[in-house]
Amino acid sequence: NAGVTQTPKFQVLKTGQSMTLQCAQDMNHNSMYWYRQDPGMGLRLIYYSASEGTTDKGEVPNGYNVSRLNKREFSLRLESAAPSQTSVYFCASRDRASRPEAFFGQGTRLTVV
Amino acid sequence: EDQVTQSPEALRLQEGESSSLNCSYTVSGLRGLFWYRQDPGKGPEFLFTLYSAGEEKEKERLKATLTKKESFLHITAPKPEDSATYLCAVQARVNTGFQKLVFGTGTRLLVSP
């Protein structure tokens, strides 16, 4: 029962570097999400994909891009990392038709120096 | 604006000492309220979904209740393994018709033996 798998678990980047966070789910869910979690801020939605082939901006999309590669995979790309993007990133998935709750991955802890 | 406020920020209990966590919310048309548990270094783990005022859900030592403006997570006779951060989220509709989760900042619970 893998659920939602995120890679990598930890990453340190230098300012200006780029990287892609990977997320895959094996629950056949239609919707996928990327959140960031910062102390005192709660989880904030970066981008979401309601279904395969569609993506939309959430609350804090600046500095990020996403790709819904197929139904299983949803990646988050930082084109030019900034210290303000230091955070813990969570991917989640949900099947709106059957169960309303979202299932989360274990997170990627990203530090930008 | 959709908003979720959780209190207290942190709570320290002795084993067996019952208490409640609060989640107050403002949302345009509640479509579900969710409780999650988050352990350090892990992703949020789903606990309960509540849909309408008066509804209650139970799981082991936890009971969630819902009114028109707030939800409570009651913890009866807690054990040290109940120590975690408890997150509350509401499901809100965005103007595209998509439904997003709005999270509170959580309550950090520590249960001492």
Q: What would you note in describing this structure?
A:
The complex is a heterodimer of chains A (113) and B (113). By secondary structure, chain A is an all-beta fold. Chain A has strands at residues 4-7, 10-13, 19-25, 31-38, 42-49, 56-57, 64-68, 74-78, 87-95, 99-104, 108-112. In chain A, strands 2, 4, 5, 6, 9, 10 and 11 form a seven-stranded mixed beta sheet that branches. The model of chain A has no long low-confidence stretch (mean pLDDT 93). Chain B has 113 residues and is mostly beta strands. In chain B, strands 2, 4, 5, 9, 10 and 11 form a six-stranded mixed beta sheet that branches. The model of chain B has no long low-confidence stretch (mean pLDDT 92).
List the quaternary state of the chains: heterodimer
- How many distinct beta strands of chain B? 11
* Helix-residue proportion of chain A: under 10%
Main structural class of chain B: mainly beta
**Mean of residue pLDDT values of chain A:** 93
Rg calc of chain B: 14 Å
Largest sheet descriptor of chain B: 6 strands, mixed
SS-based structural class of chain A?
mainly beta
Question: Strand portion of chain A, in percent?
Answer: over 45%
Q: Categorize the overall geometry of chain A.
A: globular
Helix content of chain B: under 10%
Topology of chain A as a string of helices (H) and strands (E): EEEEEEEEEEE
Q: Number of DSSP helices of chain B?
A: 0
Strand content of chain B: over 45%
Question: Mean pLDDT of chain B, nearest integer?
Answer: 92
